[in-house]
Write a structure and sequence with these properties.
The complex is a heterodimer of chains A (774) and B (99). Chain A is mainly beta and 774 residues long. Chain A contains seven helices and 59 strands. An eight-stranded mixed β-sheet of chain A has the order 46-47-48-49-50-55-51-56, covered by helices on one side. Chain A has a seven-stranded mixed β-sheet with strand order 45-44-43-57-58-59-54. The longest helix of chain A is centred in the last third of the chain and has 14 residues.
C-alpha cells in the first residue's frame, strides 16, 4: 500500500496516541447523495445501517455533500469497509474538490470481514463535500460507513500522561498512567478497559472484553464512552451534561472525571471495582426523617421520650441505626431545648442536620391572666404562655426569643421568627400594638397595629390568634384557624412534607408509589395529571388513595390529557372534590383540577390544566393573577401536567407555551409537572425558554426571576427512555438510566426546602436544597 | 355514481350530526433501537390526540446523528401519524383549547 504524507494508517494513529472526536459523527455510505458506477447492497452480513456501497471498477465513486463539522480544522475520516478480494484496493479522497490523498483498503479475508482505515483531511465549518473514487484497476471495496472525528494535533502518547481531556480518546492498546506510575488504565485489545496496579493486579474494569471496544472517548458532552469499530457504544459513564472535562488516572488508583472547576462527577470507585455501565461517585447525602413532630411541647416535670428518626441512603439503604443525636432536654427546668440528628453514609456523606425543638413549659406558667386572653397592658415573659380554652393551642415566648403558636401535639403553626434576637417580653400595648422587646427595651417585632384599637389578644379554640378591638372586631390575626399555617408569618420551625407524582394508572406500581408516600410521611400529595387511565378505574384510583393515605388526604389532582382521554374527567374531578372536602387543613379556591389555588400551611399552590383543558390564554391569565395574589412569605409552587419540549427529556412537544413557565419563574415559583414518564430536574434557571443556567449547585435559591422545573412522571403507568439531554438538566432518571417508579418529596421550612426523589426500592435518586429568596 | 355521492353525503351528515371530526396528528420518538423508537412514537402520537379513538396511519423511521444525549449511535427517529377521531365534549374541549 502506498503511504501519502497526510494519510494516517491505524498503526500511525496509535503512535500519535490521542486523537479526538468532536462528536464522532457516522455517515452511512449507502446514504450517499450521488454516485457513479457504485451500487447499494445488502449482500454480505456485518454491515451497519441499511446496507453498504458496492464500489465498481476503476473510476467508480460516491459523494456525500453533507459532512458537517462545527469548526474548520483537520479531521480524521474512519472508513469501515470489507475487501474480500485477494489484493488491496484504493480510492482517492476528494474533499470540496481537492484531492487529499488515497486510502488503501487492505484485503480483509472475506466480504463479511469488516475493517477500518483512516485518512486525515481538512474540513471547513459547515457542510463539506466528500467524494471517494476508486483509482486503481481493481476498483473500490464494499464501504459501510464513514466516521468524521476531529484530529487533535497533540502528538502525545497517551501512555505518557495521566489525563484525558475533552474530545481526547484512548485507542486499543493505549493507556493512562498515574503520575507516580502506581496505576495504569489500559484499553486492551480484547475491548476491556482495565485499571491495573503496578503489581499487575487488576482493580477495576468495564467488563467489556469480547465486545469489540476499540476507542474510549471523553466526549464533549462530558460522557465517557467506549465504542466499537462501528461506532456503537458498549459502555458509558452516563455523565453527559455533568460538565466533566478531564479524566485523571490518580495515584490512589481512582479514575476520576473532573469538571473545569475540579469537582468530581464520576469515579471508578463510585461503585464496586467490578465495573459496570453507570458508575458514579456516591456524593448523595443520606436523608433523615423525624418520627413525630419537629416541635414538641411537654409540661415541666414530665418525661421526655425521644420519638427518634429514620435515615435512608441511596447506596446504603436504611441506616437509621447509625443516627447520632446530640442535645439534652432538662424536663425539670422550663425552657426550649434542641436535639440534633445526623448520620453519615459509608462514603462519608453527612446528612443535613435535622433539629427537633422541645419546649418544656412551666407548670405554673401562663399569661399574666393565666388564660387564653392577653389584655391591653399585659405581657408574656420568657417561658410564659397562654393557651386556648380547649387546651389545643398554646402561645409561648421561648427562651430563644421566638414567640411561637403551637398545637397540642407540638406542631408550630406560626411564629415571629425572632429566635436569637434577644426578645424577653411580649406586650400588648395601650396603643394597640403587639411588640416583642429585648431586655434593653428594643423592639424586635411588632404587629404594626398601633392606632387600630386592639385591646385584647385571644387564642381561639380553632387555633387562630386574634387581636380584637373594643367592639370585638378583629384588627389582626395569625390566620391559623383550624390549625392551618399562619398567613402572617408562615409556619414555624417544623417542616411540611409534600409528595409530587404524576402519570399513575391504578395498578400495583401506583400502589407501591402510594406506599412510599405513606412511609415517607408526606402530608399532602400533588398529582400532576393522568390518574387512572381508565373510565372505569377512577373510583378504584380514588379508593387506593383513600385506603393508603387516609380518607382525609386531599391528594390534589390537576387534570392531564389521559384524564380526559381515558378517564372520565367528571369522575376524576368529583372524586377529587370529595377528598378535598374531607380535608380540613387545606384551603382551595377556583375550579378543581383545572384552575385552582390551594394553601397548605406555608405553601401556596397554583394548579392549572394548561394544555389539557381550557384555552392557553385563560390559563396564562389565571397563573399570573394567582401568583400576584400569593400570600406574603408563603412558598409558591406552580403545577400542571404537560411540558414544553425542552422541559422534558422524552418525546413531548411544546404543549404548554413558555408564558406559563416564565410567569412562574418571574415570581420565583417552583414548577412541578408530569406527562413524560420519567423524572428529570433542571438546574436553577434565569430563563426557561433559553435554558439559562443560574446555578448548578445542589443548594440554590429560588427568587423572583429564578426557579427550576421538574417532571415527576414515574407514578406507576410506565417508564420511558431518554431522548433528549442538555446542560440545563441537573438530574435525569429514565429507563435509560434503569429507572423505576417513585415520587418527588419536598419538606418546606420557612426559609428552605429539602427535596429528594426516592424510588419504590428506597433509593434516593436526587437530592437538593432550595432556599427561599422572597 | 349517484349511489357513491349519496353514501358520501350520508357519512358526512352522520359525522356532523354526531359532532365528530377526524384529524391527523403525529408523534415522534428517538431511540437507540428501532423497536423503542416505534413504540415511543406511537405513544407520543396517542398523547397528541386530545381524546377519542385513534387509527394508525403512516410510520416513518430514519437514522439521525442524534440529539439523544445518551451513549450510542446511530439513533433511530420514528414519526407515527395517526387519525384522531374526536366527538362531543372532547371536541368542544379541543376547540376551547385552540381559542
Amino acid at each position: 500500500m502506498k503511504h501519502k504524507n497526510n494519510r494516517i494508517k491505524t498503526p500511525l494513529a496509535l503512535l500519535l496516541g490521542i486523537s479526538t472526536a468532536h462528536a464522532g459523527t457516522i455517515y452511512q455510505a449507502e446514504d450517499y447523495t450521488s454516485a457513479g458506477g457504485s451500487t447499494k447492497s445488502k449482500a454480505h452480513a456485518g454491515y451497519t445501517g441499511a446496507g453498504f456501497v458496492d464500489f465498481g471498477g476503476n473510476g467508480s465513486w460516491i459523494e456525500l455533500d453533507n459532512l458537517s463539522v462545527p469548526t474548520t480544522g483537520d479531521y480524521i475520516l474512519t472508513l469501515r469497509y470489507a475487501n474480500g478480494s485477494k489484493g488491496d484496493r484504493q480510492a482517492a479522497a476528494i474533499v470540496n474538490g481537492s484531492n487529499r490523498g488515497n486510502i488503501g483498503f487492505a484485503k480483509t479475508g472475506g466480504w463479511k470481514n469488516w475493517a477500518s482505515d483512516t485518512i486525515a483531511v481538512p474540513l471547513k465549518q459547515g457542510n463539506n463535500r466528500l467524494r471517494l473514487q476508486a483509482n486503481t484497476g481493481s476498483g473500490g471495496p464494499n464501504l459501510d460507513s464513514i466516521e468524521v472525528s476531529l484530529k487533535e494535533a497533540t502528538g502525545n502518547s497517551a501512555s505518557a500522561t495521566s489525563t484525558l481531556a475533552t474530545n481526547q480518546q484512548l485507542s486499543s492498546g493505549q493507556s493512562l498512567t498515574s503520575a507516580n506510575g502506581s496505576h495504569r488504565l489500559v484499553l486492551q485489545s480484547d475491548g476491556n478497559l482495565v485499571i491495573y496496579k503496578n503489581t499487575g493486579e487488576a482493580i477495576w474494569d468495564t467488563k467489556t472484553n469480547g465486545k469489540g471496544g476499540n476507542r474510549f472517548i471523553l466526549q464533549g458532552d462530558g460522557n465517557l464512552v467506549l465504542r466499537n469499530s462501528s461506532g456503537s457504544a458498549i459502555w458509558a459513564s452516563g455523565t453527559n451534561g455533568k460538565g466533566g472535562t478531564k479524566l485523571v488516572m490518580q495515584d490512589d488508583g481512582n479514575l476520576v472525571l473532573y469538571t473545569s472547576s475540579n469537582a468530581a462527577v464520576w469515579s471508578s470507585k463510585g461503585t464496586s471495582e467490578t465495573g459496570g455501565g453507570s458508575n458514579t461517585p456516591d456524593t448523595i447525602k443520606p436523608v433523615i426523617t423525624l418520627n413525630g413532630s419537629a416541635n414538641i411541647s411537654i409540661p415541666q416535670g414530665s418525661t421526655f421520650n425521644d420519638p427518634g428518626a429514620t435515615a435512608s441512603d441511596n447506596q446504603d439503604g436504611n441506616i437509621s441505626n447509625k443516627i447520632t443525636v446530640t442535645g439534652t432536654v432538662n424536663t425539670a427546668a422550663a425552657g426550649v431545648y434542641q436535639r440534633q440528628y445526623n448520620v453519615k453514609d459509608a462514603a462519608g456523606n453527612a446528612a443535613n442536620t435535622v433539629t427537633r425543638i422541645i419546649t418544656v413549659v412551666s407548670s405554673g406558667s401562663g399569661g399574666s391572666n393565666g388564660g387564653s386572653v392577653l389584655q391591653s397592658g399585659q405581657q408574656l415573659n420568657v417561658n410564659q404562655s397562654i393557651q386556648s380554652a380547649n387546651g389545643n393551642y398554646r402561645l409561648v415566648l421561648q427562651t430563644d426569643g421566638n414567640l411561637v403558636l403551637y398545637t397540642k401535639s407540638g406542631q408550630a403553626l406560626w411564629s415571629t421568627k425572632t429566635n436569637g434576637k434577644g426578645a424577653t417580653r411580649f406586650v400588648i400595648q395601650s396603643d394597640g400594638n403587639l411588640v416583642l422587646y429585648t431586655s434593653a427595651n428594643q423592639s424586635v417585632w411588632s404587629s404594626k397595629t398601633n392606632g387600630k384599637g386592639g385591646t385584647k389578644l385571644v387564642i381561639q379554640d380553632d387555633g387562630n390568634l386574634v387581636l380584637l378591638n373594643g367592639s370585638g372586631t378583629s384588627v389582626w390575626s395569625t390566620n391559623t384557624g383550624n390549625g392551618s399555617g399562619g398567613g402572617d408569618s408562615g409556619s414555624g420551625a417544623g417542616g411540611v412534607k409534600i409528595a409530587f407524582i404524576g402519570d399513575t394508572g391504578y395498578g400495583s406500581n401506583f400502589q407501591k408509589v402510594l406506599n412510599l408516600i405513606k412511609s415517607e410521611k408526606a402530608e399532602l400529595t400533588i398529582v400532576a395529571g393522568d390518574t387512572s387511565y381508565s373510565s372505569s378505574g377512577d373510583d378504584n384510583w380514588d379508593a387506593m388513595v383513600r385506603n393508603t393515605l387516609g380518607s382525609s388526604d386531599p391528594a390534589l389532582v390537576v387534570a392531564g390529557n389521559h384524564d380526559t382521554q381515558d378517564s372520565k374527567l367528571s369522575d376524576v374531578l368529583s372524586f377529587g372534590k370529595s377528598r378535598l372536602s374531607r380535608a380540613s387543613n387545606v384551603q382551595c379556591s377556583g375550579s378543581y383540577g383545572e384552575q385552582m389555588t390551594c394553601r397548605y400551611k406555608n405553601i401556596y399552590f397554583v394548579l392549572s390544566s394548561i394544555g389539557t383543558t381550557g384555552s392557553q390564554s385563560s390559563h396564562e391569565n389565571f397563573i399570573s393573577n394567582s401568583l400576584n395574589e400569593s400570600p406574603n412569605g408563603a412558598w409558591r409552587v406552580c403545577a400542571w401536567h404537560k411540558n414544553q419540549r425542552d422541559m422534558q427529556v422524552g418525546g413531548k412537544t411544546d404543549e404548554v407555551g413558555w408564558n406559563a413557565y416564565e410567569t412562574c419563574r418571574e415570581k420565583g415559583a417552583i414548577i412541578a409537572t408530569g406527562h413524560e414518564h420519567s423524572y428529570e430536574r433542571t438546574h436553577l434557571l434565569s430563563d426557561m425558554s433559553s435554558k439559562s443556567v443560574a446555578s448548578t449547585s445542589s443548594t440554590f435559591t429560588v427568587s423572583p426571576g429564578k426557579t427550576f422545573a421538574f417532571v415527576s412522571g414515574l407514578g406507576g403507568i410506565g417508564i420511558r427512555d431518554q431522548e433528549r439531554g442538555g446542560s440545563h438538566w441537573a438530574k435525569i432518571y429514565t429507563s435509560t438510566q434503569g429507572a423505576t417508579y417513585g415520587a418527588m418529596f419536598a419538606t418546606f421550612y420557612d426559609d428552605r426546602a429539602e427535596f429528594y426523589f426516592k424510588n419504590i426500592s428506597g433509593k434516593v435518586i436526587d437530592q437538593f436544597t432550595v432556599n427561599k429568596g422572597y | 355514481m349517484k349511489s357513491l355521492i349519496v353514501a358520501v353525503l350520508m357519512i358526512v351528515s352522520v359525522q356532523v350530526y354526531a359532532g365528530c371530526e377526524s384529524t391527523m396528528v403525529e408523534g415522534g420518538h428517538t431511540a437507540l433501537k428501532i423497536k423503542d423508537a416505534k413504540a415511543g412514537a406511537f405513544e407520543e402520537a396517542k398523547d397528541a390526540c386530545p381524546a377519542g379513538d385513534i387509527t394508525p396511519a403512516s410510520l416513518d423511521c430514519t437514522k439521525v446523528d442524534g440529539d439523544i444525549g445518551v451513549a450510542g449511535k446511530p439513533a433511530i427517529r420514528c414519526i407515527q401519524q395517526v387519525y384522531c377521531n374526536i366527538c362531543g365534549d372532547d371536541l368542544a374541549r379541543k376547540y376551547e383549547a385552540l381559542e
